[in-house]
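fyi for ur records
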Amino acid sequence: MDQIIAGGAAEPVDVDMNNFMAEVIEASAATPTIVQFWAPWCGPCKQLGPILEKVVGASGGKVRMVKVNIDDNVQIAQQMRVQSVPTVYGFVDGKPVDGFAGAQPESTIKQFVDKLAEMGGGHDIAAMLATADETLSSGDHAVAMMQFQEVMGIAPESIPALAGVVRCLTASGDIDGAREVLDQLNDDYLNDAAMKPAIAAVELAEKASESAGELEDAQARVDANPEDLEARQALALALFAAGRNAEAMDQLLQSIKIERGWNDDVARLQLLDFFASLGPTNPDVITARRKLSTILFS
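which gave:
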């Protein structure tokens, strides 16, 4: 699981002579890379650093950032002709293409980052996430997992991508793995709007798994008395746990049709949970939504 998540937002990599080639020269061939030269005793560095991290993080993976402590890396500072700190360079394709010295306002830093993003071409993170979501909704969990992890490789701080990983684990039946990921997240991640559907999906899967062994019994009860709505509710959860999603939703639809508001509308609310877990583009969800509209507005 350590390869899937980090404990919180990604921190800029500390660069020295051992990893300068990999983290700056080679990495900037794939993604424009900002190098901040700083020192622990430098007051302006402490002001600039957080602003740089914020703006780079907002780029959605189009630009990345590393840091070089000049006190510990005199040779790098000399090679880059750093005369004072903070000094910032932007690298694209292994070469320094822009830079500035001294603390700067956020608006200037944003222009600097945007310029680098355009030079490197960047990555359309939103489009990549949309593709992964569509793949997951189609039921191809393995490919969707690779797509979400590809986004995380570009933008490790992407909460939507991590939420997608959790949803993939859940959809593929690895509920324990999904719960393990969630248990490692801090409150910033857990409270993010993008993570909420993933958490709900895990909780639903855990609830359904408790009913997995009741499938035969619940089916027998429904067969014996089709209007036993409690049995239909149990059967729906058991079917969902078994991956028989369309059948599970049909049981709830039938329950709503028999008695719409039974038990504080529990069947409809459970159906909405299924919709949220499977995603709006899932074919079974689309069909079930159509049937639900017909029942509610007939």
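The radius of gyration is 25 Å. thats all i got for now
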